[in-house]
């Protein structure tokens, strides 16, 4: 028993380009699916996470802080990776205000090596 078929689906997945943006840093080396949004040396704005939906993926943006329940506040769902990062950068003033009035993020950034 084993897999059968031409292997086209596997090749398509392996050939897919890694998502990159100058303001999105993988949450840890080699990671895909979770990025920290940070402009230059400034404090992080938040995270962008990919989520599978029927027919593709969407990208959820979260603030770099914790809400009253201890979770990261969801901010926006974007149809593409670049749109999610751009939205966070364009709304940085509002995001920084939310961070200032919320519980600080307990996770250290950058992560210890």
Give me the secondary-structure topology:
Layout: H1 8-15, E1 24-26, E2 34-37, E3 46-53, E4 56-63, E5 65-66, E6 74-78, H2 81-90, H3 92-100, E7 103-104
Antiparallel strand pairs: 1-2, 2-3, 3-4, 4-6, 5-7
Task: Describe this structure as you would to a colleague.
- This protein is of the alpha+beta class and 113 residues long.
- It has one domain.
- 24% of the residues lie in helices and 28% in strands.
- It contains three helices and seven strands.
- The protein has a five-stranded antiparallel sheet.
- The mean pLDDT is 85.
**Fraction of helical residues:** 10-25%
Work out the strand percent.
25-35%
Structural domains: how many: 1
Distance between the termini: 43 Å
| Spatial order of strands in the largest sheet | 1-2-3-4-6
Give a quick set of tags describing it.
single chain; 113 residues; alpha+beta; 5-stranded antiparallel beta sheet; two-stranded antiparallel sheet; 24% helix; globular
What is the structure about, briefly put?
24% of the residues lie in helices and 28% in strands.
């Amino acid at each position: 028993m084993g897999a059968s078929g031409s292997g086209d689906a596997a090749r398509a997945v392996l050939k897919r380009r890694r998502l990159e943006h100058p303001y999105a840093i993988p949450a840890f080396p080699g990671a895909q699916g979770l990025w920290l949004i940070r402009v230059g040396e400034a404090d992080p704005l938040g995270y962008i996470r990919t989520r599978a939906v029927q027919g593709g993926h969407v990208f959820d943006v979260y603030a770099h802080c914790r809400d009253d329940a201890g979770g990261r506040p969801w901010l926006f769902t974007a149809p593409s990776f670049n749109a999610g990062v751009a939205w966070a950068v364009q709304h940085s003033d509002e995001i920084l205000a939310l961070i200032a009035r919320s519980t600080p993020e307990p996770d250290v950034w950058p992560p210890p090596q």
